[in-house]
Structures are given as C-alpha cells and as structure tokens.
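Why should sequence recovery work at all? Because a backbone constrains its sequence more than one might expect. Tight turns favour small or flexible residues, buried strands favour hydrophobic ones, and helices have their own preferences. The token representation captures these environments compactly. In the example below, the structure is given first.
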C-alpha cells in the first residue's frame, strides 16, 4: 500500500507523542481550542506536551511546506512572548523518511576518529562552516554506534529521532541532548545556506568534545 504524506504526518505525530509520554510529559494530540491558552486561540498545534513548568508546542511539517505561509513565524512569535513555553518544529523530509538507506554503511569508530582529526584541521585553517558540517556527521555516526551498543531500537535514521531515542533511553544526558539539539538546528541552517550569529569556533569545539566523550565511552580507539 502506498504511503501518503498524510499517513506519514499522522505516524510521526503519534511517534513524537509517545516519545514525550515516555519522558513523563502530559501529552495532548491535536488539542481543541478549549484546551489552548488565549494566545494560541488562532493556532492549531499538533501536540502540546506539559511537564512541571515547561510546555512544548510541537508542529510537524513537510519540508516542502515550510515557506507556504506566515503561520510558523507568527506561532513562534506568540510562544516566544510567554515564559515556560517553547516551540519544537519537526520537519518531515520525504526522501529521508520514506526511502530506506541502501548501499550505505555508517562510519565506524576508526572513521570517526579520522574525521575528528580532519575537523581540527579545518578549524585551524578557519573553514568554520565545513568544520561544523563534518563535526556533525561524526556526532551522528557516534550516536548511532551508541544506540547499537545500548541496543536501542531505531525505526529511522534522521538525527532528531536518533537524539530523542537516546534521551528517552537515558543513553545521553539531558545536558548532552539539549546541546546537541541546539547544534543540530544551527547545522541545518548552515547546510541550507543560512547564517547565524550563534555560530562560532567554540560551538564546533564543544560538539567535537561531546563526540569525543561519547566515542571514548563505547570504543578504545585512539582519538589523537
């Protein structure tokens, strides 16, 4: 049976809801207007997830639909004005989410160590964007190795899902999760031709250090 974009969106919404429930959030899928605060009365978020003093508004969108309207920028602005609330955007890439990975092998520990050394060389020669992109690829590969070692089930290979699974199973700390999530968003922006004032050498070095620590915890490879 052919998978439609509506099926894919519905499936992803349910997966995300389950992931937040596993982290002890009170989750509401497709909340009614009566379940929303006044400042969200004009919006229709896919998920609300509440825990303690934090409320996460989660929107699931096709990558091809992100620029179709002002809905997301206006929603982000409305949420930003309220303490304790944050927006999480989950982007569905049809090629990544429907098509399986064929004839491709993930980097192993030796490959990762070599790529980390190449990242250092890129930093030393002031190629910051290239350094970040390479550093992120080593981080993702390391996270997949960690998931394999901890026998964490993976239904997909995208970075967002990978990070959430590792956090759900406590294979990475909350601090590591938050740091990697922030870096992933910046990496995505740069990979798609955007600039950010938050991008600097320190961020790349922090990502490399996190990758080093995770790799050392699962491998005896000399990183150099």
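From this structural description, the recovered sequence reads:
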């Amino acid at each position: 049976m052919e998978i439609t974009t509506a099926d894919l969106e519905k499936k992803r919404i349910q997966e995300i809801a389950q992931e937040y429930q596993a982290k002890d959030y009170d989750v509401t899928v497709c909340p009614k207007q009566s379940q929303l605060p006044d400042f969200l009365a004009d919006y229709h978020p896919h998920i609300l997830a509440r825990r303690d003093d934090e409320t996460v508004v989660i929107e699931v969108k096709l990558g091809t639909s992100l620029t179709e309207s002002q809905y997301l920028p206006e929603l982000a602005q409305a949420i930003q004005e309220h303490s304790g609330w944050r927006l999480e955007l989950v982007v569905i890439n049809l090629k990544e989410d429907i098509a399986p990975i064929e004839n491709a092998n993930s980097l192993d520990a030796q490959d990762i160590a070599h790529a980390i050394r190449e990242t250092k060389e890129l930093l030393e020669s002031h190629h910051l964007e290239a350094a970040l992109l390479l550093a992120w690829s080593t981080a993702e590969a390391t996270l997949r190795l960690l998931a394999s070692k901890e026998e964490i089930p993976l239904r997909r290979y995208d970075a967002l899902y990978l990070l959430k699974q590792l956090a759900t199973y406590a294979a990475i700390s909350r601090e590591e999760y938050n740091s990697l999530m922030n870096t992933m968003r910046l990496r995505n922006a740069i990979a798609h031709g955007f600039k950010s004032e938050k991008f600097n050498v320190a961020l790349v070095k922090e990502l490399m250090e996190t990758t080093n620590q995770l790799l050392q915890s699962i491998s005896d490879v000399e990183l150099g």
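A few observations help interpret the result. Strands lie at 26-29, 47-51, 54-62, 85-92.
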